[in-house]
Amino acid sequence: MTIIDLAEMPFYSICGEGTEIGKPAVFIRTFGCNKVPKCSYCDTSYSYEGKPITLTLSKLIKELDIISAKTQCRTLFLTGGEPTLQEEALIILLRYMHGAYTILQTNGTRFSPVLFGLVDELSVDVKGPSSGLQSNLSTESKIDRMFSHKKRQFKFVVSNTEDLAFAKWAMRQLTGTIILQPEANTLGIHALAQWVLADPDIARHDIRVLPQLHRILGVK
Ligand code: SF4
């Protein structure tokens, strides 16, 4: 019997970040995060603190069937925490969920080729200086290379000019879509947009400057 640890029960909402922003989706938020130290701006500490909700995979599938029957939504967003920590269960789930459009959000610290190969889209958070532990880009570059046939985005949370300089260094090495997102408590979207517009080195990449829509809408 395969089980999965979740931070909360699956829910229906609007994608708040990245290239799928604004799209209705069913969300699965897995429990647990391997990032040490935890990101300074993490807004989902409930996904690794306290106790998980442990479900059998068949119970989770029943829950998803109920939501999709009610909403008719066929987009499934896997997030966390760090979903690759629940790799075994998610691989089985994704094999069952054929026909759904699936997106996996990962913190870019674990390389899970089988899992990554099963989703339609990869959304990789690249951790910059203000996160507390800057990425050396090794896993992200591997994902970019090995899944170049797949839709993929690399998201940078920007708090300050140091984060932006890191993102500029990283985007020169990545070929997927680049998302620049202001850190909600320290930088406004207008300031970030102005920095980007003033810098031709950034504009020549496939980038989007995006807010966190779910915060604006006040949804999960
Ligand atoms: S990787 Fe994600 S869940 Fe983990 S600490 Fe960072 S923001 Fe939070």
Instruction: Quote the beta fraction.
Output: 15-25%
Cα shape: globular
Question: Which structural class do you get from the secondary structure elements?
Answer: alpha/beta
DSSP summary: helix tally: 8
Bound molecules: iron/sulfur cluster
Order of helices and strands: EEEEHEHEHEHEHEHHEH
Total strand count, please?
Answer: 10
Provide the residue-averaged pLDDT: 95
Largest sheet, spatial ordering of strands: 2-3-5-6-7-8-9-10
Low-confidence stretches: none
Largest sheet: 8 strands, mixed
Secondary-structure map:
Layout: E1 3-6, E2 11-14, E3 24-29, E4 53-56, H1 57-71, E5 75-79, H2 87-96, E6 101-106, H3 113-118, E7 121-126, H4 138-146, E8 151-158, H5 161-171, E9 177-182, H6 189-197, H7 200-203, E10 207-209, H8 213-217
Parallel strand pairs: 3-5, 5-6, 6-7, 7-8, 8-9, 9-10
Antiparallel strand pairs: 1-4, 2-3
Bound molecules: iron/sulfur cluster.
Residues 33, 35, 38-39, 42, 44, 47, 80-82, 107 line the site of iron/sulfur cluster.
